Amino acid sequence: MVLFRSVSLLTKLRSSAVQQSNLGNSVRWFQNKLRYTSYFHSERCNLRCQYCMPAEGVELTPSARVLSQDEIVRLANLFVSSGVDKIRLTGGEPTIRKDIEELCQRLSNLEGLKTLAMTTNGITLSKKLPKLKEYGLNLVNISLDTLIPAKFEFMTRRRGHDRVIESINTAVDLGYNPVKVNCVVMRGFNEDEICDFVKLTRDKPINIRFIEFMPFDGNVWNVKKLVPYSEMLDRVGKQFKIERIQDHHTETAKNFRIDGHQGTVSFITSMTEHFCAGCNRLRLLADGNFKVCLFGPSEVSLRDPLRSGVDDDKLREIIGAAVKRKKASHAGMFDLAKTPNRPMIHIGG
Asked: Which pathway does this chain act in (predicted)?
């Protein structure tokens, strides 16, 4: 999947609308001048994380219905030419794409794009990262939910903990700053490791991002597994001297400095303190469906009109109409748990 971020998407979409089709009314939600407007997503993965997919796995989209590299680049160029300045590749696992290096090179060469990011499980990243950096990948998020190999194997249903650690160290050695590490915190599994994760930031430019456990189809979400932001912050505050960082109004994380540490700590509080008012994320899924909210079931196909031969102005109109339907905030966590949505592997993190 791809996530886009845009400096002036509202302005440019409105300008196009005035000339073309009253699209300005359709993109009124973009009043914060989006910077981060889309994820390009790949469904395939080499792990089977319990919070991402059910134990029996998921049915993958047939290859004929998946966006081609050329289609991804065309849609990315459409967003970037409209003001997007950040794109994120996610999954599934983007590094197992055979064309990932070429895709990064083509995307990073889009005029106006400032940041090409990737969220990865780190299993195969270490060997590929030097070339990916050469081809324009300038920000990485690496997922790691435990520092204990046996627990890693239990959670992911696969081995490879050592390779994830190697990828984090490789990213640091290559000069990525910060190296973001995503950690989904679940009661009874890894809440006792929170402060151990914080210690990773002492001597390295690592940003640990603690994420509240979120409900998706097939991940057997239960509020009893949720460790709320307030509890995580309290654990960290009792052991470390922390200072809140002034966040940008579109920031999805609550960010903190740790006294004496080179790195930082962040909290993604989707369940207990949502950040919908400032959220500027949109998602393009592997099958070309477009989502304006991670938790919303509503999707609109960009693949079908793209393959039917519509021009970029019509695609902008479709995007604008979808954005117009974006709600001011997602439902509460108990309602989300009952709302049909795709498994996380189909949506992208």
From this structure: Cofactor biosynthesis; molybdopterin biosynthesis
Please name the amino acid found at residue 318: I
Strand partners, 117: 88, 139
186: its two tokens: 């679940």
Phi then psi for residue 318, to 5 deg, are -65, -45
User: In which residue are the tokens 């021009």 written?
Assistant: 311
* CA dist 196 → 174, 200, 240 (Å): 24, 7, 11
Q: Minimal CA–CA distance to 294: which of 107, 81, 90?
A: 90
Q: State both tokens at 183.
A: 């950690």
Q: Which two tokens stand for residue 126?
A: 């270490």
Q: Is the pTM of this model over 0.70?
A: yes
Kind of pairing between the strands at 179-185 and 206-212: parallel
Q: How crowded is residue 235: how many other Cβ atoms within 10 Å of its Cβ?
A: 18
Evaluate whether 10 touches 30 at the Cβ level (below 8 Å).
Answer: yes
Tens-binned pLDDT, residue by residue, of the chain (349 aa): 565 544 344 334 434 433 343 444 434 434 344 455 556 667 788 888 877 777 677 788 899 999 999 999 999 998 888 878 899 999 889 999 999 999 999 999 999 999 999 999 999 999 999 999 999 999 999 999 999 999 999 999 999 999 999 999 999 999 999 999 999 999 999 999 999 999 999 999 999 999 998 764 444 557 788 999 999 999 999 999 999 999 887 778 999 999 999 999 999 998 888 655 666 778 888 999 998 776 566 788 999 999 999 999 999 999 888 877 765 554 444 444 445 545 545 445 5
Token look-up 């990828």 returns 167
Angle at 270 between CA 266 and CA 275, to 5 degrees: 85
**Rounded Cα distance, 233 and 141, in Å:** 21
